[in-house]
Design a protein that fits this description.
500 residues; alpha+beta; Jelly Rolls; eight-stranded antiparallel beta sheet; four-stranded antiparallel beta sheet; 18 strands; binds 2-oxoglutaric acid; binds fe (ii) ion
Length: 500
């Protein structure tokens, strides 16, 4: 992460489906500029390698970027391959629009974005306890998707995990790459993108040896093991490597190896259990129509479901309308990039794309404000902002608190007090993953379009309630949209005097 420094101005395509759609569009523009020369073998090979023609309609495109495997593929091939293809096209062809191609290539994902995409895949694997061999084959939890990781995708995951020092994961990915290697032995591809077979062999063996050396106690840690292995391999010739690799990949040996690689199991944390949907659903508290919080509700009561009584968490259904969702998604032009975990040494919890929605005058904003008042009975100051968030490839939120003693200071807090209540609207369904989890309370809530939850972050006396700790599980498959508002303490002075 440190390599290139963190450049906030750069597009983070992988952190939101909005970003990924932009990237897909970029690739499609690139293709459109080649179509005139469609007969060329090189272009044919390129179009084949990106599975062009699959994503014609907006629905298909959204589906494509909502799947972590195809999303990763997209980021990888635009980052790694596109510049090489471009170079080849420029050299080989009489293209009228060479400048356009160069211009498009200038916007490809950088290595930070590429790494974020790999970390998203890793996060899905870890948090949902998936097997890498399943993932590579398009099996996500119990669902088999038609999308598979290609040879180069698998190899790239291996390299990135290796670089992260996760040698077990690297070995698992290299193993999966080795299974596709002969089939994708495509001459044109290898000529233009390079033939990584030798690298695969070497890296696969290195990853295995490093892992085994630490696992067996031969080395104290990864660094020591890696140093030993590098030294050993420096003396070995290619013939030995080939021989070793051949042995390793023999079916009978591979089966044994597979067992060993997947042997160790780690118990799930409470957050992860929540993500798996393992928490017992609380015996139904109450489901009812709320027609008392505000006078308006007498006419149009809201569907309310208590999630927890102490601390109080409540869910409302059908409180955000499709027409409103359309409008708030339309705000996505102003999205700021998602952040990585680490930024200037301080932990940043937010890796999703966010947009702060300030426009107080909009009638929609007023309606949503009113609905928040109807649901909570609290006083919303006009200076409170609403945030639209859109998630991307395996993006999530670490367990955190919304009150600002968790290390966050916002200008509102000094004038409005701490964040008493969090209100969260779900502006989409999520096909797989993406639950909101309260690990201390053993509660998880899976997004349902149009629903909202709200909860207290502070006790009645204004001090922090640590039970409000919550997190967002990585999205596995889907397009997650939310709307968040924090209601601050001071404006409740007269609304709910007993609070303070
Ligand atoms: O989207 C969610 O489920 C929760 C988001 C959240 O925790 C936050 O915005 O602080
Ligand atoms: Fe939060």
């Amino acid at each position: 992460i440190e390599d290139e420094g963190y450049d906030e101005g750069k597009e983070r395509y992988s952190s939101s489906t909005v970003g990924l759609l932009k990237l897909l569009k970029l690739e499609q523009k690139f293709v459109e500029n080649l179509i005139a020369n469609e007969e060329s073998e090189t272009i044919k090979a390129y179009l084949f390698s990106i599975d062009y023609k699959k994503n014609q309609s907006p629905e298909e495109r959204l589906e494509y970027v909502s799947n972590p495997l195809s999303a990763f593929s997209l980021v990888r091939r635009t980052h790694e391959d596109l510049p090489k293809w471009n170079k080849q096209f420029q050299k080989e062809m009489e293209l009228t629009n060479k400048v356009v191609l160069d211009e498009l290539v200038a916007y490809i994902p950088d290595s930070q974005d590429f790494l974020e995409a790999a970390l998203g895949i890793q996060r899905i694997e870890r948090i949902y306890d998936l097997r890498i061999d399943d993932l590579a084959k398009g099996i996500l939890q119990d669902k088999q998707y038609s999308i598979r990781f290609t040879f180069r995708d698998r190899l790239a995951m291996g390299h990135l995990m290796f670089k992260q020092g996760d040698f077990l994961a690297a070995a698992k990915w290299y193993r999966m790459a080795s299974k596709l290697e002969p089939k994708e032995d495509n001459k044109i591809l290898n000529k233009i993108l390079g033939d990584p077979t030798d690298i695969l062999k070497l890296q696969y063996l290195k990853a295995l040896f490093v892992y085994a050396s630490v696992f067996s106690g031969d080395s104290q840690n990864n660094d020591e093991a890696l140093a030993k292995v590098e030294k050993k391999f420096a003396d070995i010739g290619n013939v030995d490597i080939d021989e070793f690799y051949l042995k390793l990949t023999k079916p009978e040996n591979d089966i044994e190896l597979e067992k060993q690689l997947y042997e160790t199991q780690r118990p799930s944390t409470d957050f992860e259990k929540g993500c798996h949907g393992e928490f017992q659903s609380k015996s139904r508290l109450t489901c009812s129509y709320n027609h008392t919080t505000t006078p308006f509700l007498r006419l149009a009561p809201l569907k309310m479901e208590e999630v927890s009584r102490n601390p109080y968490i409540v869910m409302y259904h059908d409180v955000l309308y499709d027409s409103e969702i359309e409008v708030l998604k339309g705000q996505s032009d102003g999205f700021s990039n998602g952040f990585a975990d680490e930024k200037n040494g301080s932990i940043i919890r937010d890796i999703v794309a966010r947009h702060v929605w300030w426009s107080e005058e909009s009638p929609i904003r007023e309606r949503i404000n009113q609905r928040i008042i109807d649901m909570t009975g609290l006083n919303i100051s006009i200076t409170e902002k609403i945030q639209v968030a859109n998630y991307g490839l395996g993006t999530y939120f670490k367990p955190h608190f919304d009150y600002t003693s968790d290390g966050f200071q916002t200008p509102e807090v000094s004038t409005l007090g701490d964040r008493l209540v969090s209100v969260l609207f779900y502006a989409s369904d999520v096909a797989q993953g993406g639950a909101t989890v309260f690990p201390e309370l053993k509660i998880s809530i899976f997004p349902r379009i149009g629903s909202a939850i709200w909860w207290y972050n502070l006790y009645n006396n204004g001090t922090s309630d640590t039970r409000s700790k919550h997190s967002v599980c990585p999205v596995i498959q889907g397009d997650r949209w939310t709307l968040t508002m924090w209601i601050h303490l001071f404006p409740q002075m007269f609304k709910a005097p007993c609070l303070i």
